[in-house]
Amino acid sequence: MKYLDEYRDGTIARGLAAEIARRVTRPWVLMEICGGQTHTLMRFGIDEMLPPGIEMVHGPGCPVCVTSLETIDKAIEIASRPGVTLVSYGDMLRVPGSRTDLFHVRANGGDVRIVYSPTEALKIARANPLRQVVFFAVGFETTAPANAMAVWLAKREGLANFSMLASHVLVPPAMSALLGSPRNRVQGFIGPGHVCTVMGYHEYEQLIRKFRVPIVVGGFEPVDLLEAILMLVTQLEQGRAEVENQYVRSVSYAGNLPAQKILAEVFEVCDRKWRGIGGIPESGLNIRAEYAEFDADRIFHTEKLSAEESPDCISAEVLQGLKKPVDCTAFGVRCTPENPLGAPMVSSEGACAAYYRYRRHAVAGSGSR
Amino acid sequence: MCLAIPGKVLTSENRGGVRVGRVQFGGITRETCLDFVPEAQVGDYVIVHVGFAISRVDAEEAKKSFELLESMGLLQEELGPETEIS
Ligand code: SF4
Question: Which domain covers residue A341, as residue numbers?
């Protein structure tokens, strides 16, 4: 890819880091929202290139991590029924529910399959007309339009054996919840570049008016993130709080209108419980009544299961940027990607998994103090 | 699963009212829904997420952004190696 090399260039990265160091006069706490950005930060050691005063904390932007335990348990319950084929994105299979995970349901004879695109879920439903194919659909605003399209296509072709267990989450309400918390430490945000590719960035102006915190929409390459950090630091040092767009090669102010249109057609905003964080008003997307026949939540009635998190897991604090994964006593010991205790250890975009992969050395040093 | 990757549009066709194309990512190609990027033509770069293109990567904007970054690189030369953060 033609442009990628320039965005990974080491000289430019060091130049940006030096410029950040030159502009910083006091400490700042910055949060990247998106798990993909967390992954890049850890992989390229960007947090370690920054001057000591700049602390990066990691946000809740990993859909695998924030899907509520109750919803995971519900997916597990549905997948265990005869005649049901449950399909989802790969990482969802390993997310621990309160008693088991989807992987074990499959090992015990359940028909659980991995898809890489919602269109594959439709293909499976077409090929298996005698089975109920339930697509366990999670994701932020980036993924939701593709998932919405699957429901729209299913309705258009009358695919009666297809339904969706929807657990979509929205970024701006989560940022609002973090900023509104009395424990908040975050002074500036790197906005989620692919969420904004779909939604644009006008929604963030409201957040800035309310909380006076700078937000720079950022990309995913090392140089993107360093540039976004530089833009944030510049705003903070100048006492400005504005929304700026670093990721101009993909993000426009208005976002992707065809994607927003299908979103609004199929989904509506709802309150949503986030794993580790709790209920956030108007922070999710559910299937509209017009598409009720494709809503697994309405088709399958499940007992209300009492769901409990592992007592060792501090993912609630990790997801709110209050603690680092290395602060967790289970990190790398009782909790590893092979045997995750909490959701942030599952997906490569989860903060705990990213630390495990690239910062395990930190356990012996800072984390165990 | 939230990653989105840039790729080059190789083909484009209308299949039952949905625009579908083959998109090349390095050595592999994948069938991709192009419905959300009506402006993207064969030969353009798009950013793809879960099998759906969500934006066309604007070559002009990419160049502008790159020039800015390049000027930052030059800035670093002026500052000299001792200001490097290891
Ligand atoms: S390391 Fe494991 S147990 Fe600790 S917070 Fe992360 S996911 Fe939870």
Answer: 315-358
